[in-house]
Amino acid sequence: MVVKDRPVAIGRRGNFVEISGELSQSGFTGVVEVSYRLDEISRARAVFINGKMVDVRVNKLISKTELTGDEALNELLRVGKCVADIYTIDKSSSTIPENETNIEVPSIELHATPWQNEEDCVEKVESCLEVSREEILRKYKIKEPSEEEIDAIIKKAVEDELEGLDIEVFEEFERLKEELKSLSRKYLGKLSKKVEESIDRTSFPDELMDLAAEIGNSKSLRIFIPKEKLEKLAEEMGELIKLRSVERINT
Amino acid sequence: MYENIIADLMSVDGIRAVVLSDSEGNIIESESTLLENRDLESFTAYITNFFTKGSDVISKSSSDEVLSTLIECKKEKILVCRVNENLILLLIADSNTNIGMMRIESRKAVEKIQLMDG
After folding, report:
1. Tens digits of per-residue pLDDT, A105-121?
2. Do B4 and A10 touch (CB under 8 A)?
3. Which residues pair with A86 in a beta bridge?
4. pLDDT tens per residue across span A146-182
5. Top-level CATH class of B3-117?
6. Do A83 and B4 touch (CB under 8 A)?
7. Cα dist. A130→A16, A108, A137, B13 in Å?
8. B17 interface with A at CB cutoff 8 Å
9. Which residues in chain B are closer than 8 Å to A43, comparing Cβ atoms?
10. A108 and A175 belong to one structural domain
11. Do A13 and A109 reside in the same domain of the chain?
């Protein structure tokens, strides 16, 4: 049970979202009696502890019905204009523990923003639920790394990964690349320079297979080299890659 | 505008209607659980007129100011209070309603309105 003490504000006019948003932000502890006329004259009593709404009840004075928890909160979010009387709590007579609550929804940070109708209200509440990136970073005390720090982290991760690779496999792959380059030179002569550069850029045998297929279908090379010759080069490159792969598996 | 006042008074046992009107009897804020065929607007206008005329008589004859008037009828009690020179508070309650409670609550309401409008 919460016993109200001295008044902080009497007859504060506004809407519930606005008023409770202000109280939440200021870390208010006390009782707010909100009077409004929705379908009938009603009186809501919300208890705030350190800015967090821990209890809310609505009494409909004509039909003599009471709403509590989420139901009461949902009703209050529909209220347009209301009059609020704000009181502090008489701590010596009050028995509500700080963590007691009859509201099952997560505590919503309600901001003091004006709104016109129910749809607008829902929109505002939904927008309140969207937490910005900056707020999350601040809440969990996460420092965003700079571009340089990100590059350093990636570089270190790649180096660590490479250290773990089998050096023999790496050397084998390099030898295969050299073999392919010499094959390319044999078929293309001076024109093999671009192909050799492409081979150097590859890191995995699969990429070499794709490259071989591309050479076979290359329109720009076909201007200078006959189609049959290119297809033969592609075929030989493919066979060589497969052969080396089989050899590696067998060993 | 004065929903908190209306809610305070309507929460009191026995009170059936609360009306805040201007000194001419025009309703500003009201709530009632009286029968729907009861014309609260006309009733407020008559009672307010009665109250202001009575107050004028008293102030002229005894140079005093009337704060409230209680009318006890067979079926109900009617309490009329002056809030300020522009506002009048009218309470209609069941005949068995505690008069002391009505007076205390009406005074509280008057003080609250004065605080709000002050």
Report:
1. 444 444 434 444 555 55
2. yes
3. A9, A32
4. 888 888 888 888 777 666 566 777 788 888 888 888 8
5. alpha beta
6. yes
7. 20, 10, 14, 45
8. no
9. 4, 7, 11
10. no
11. yes
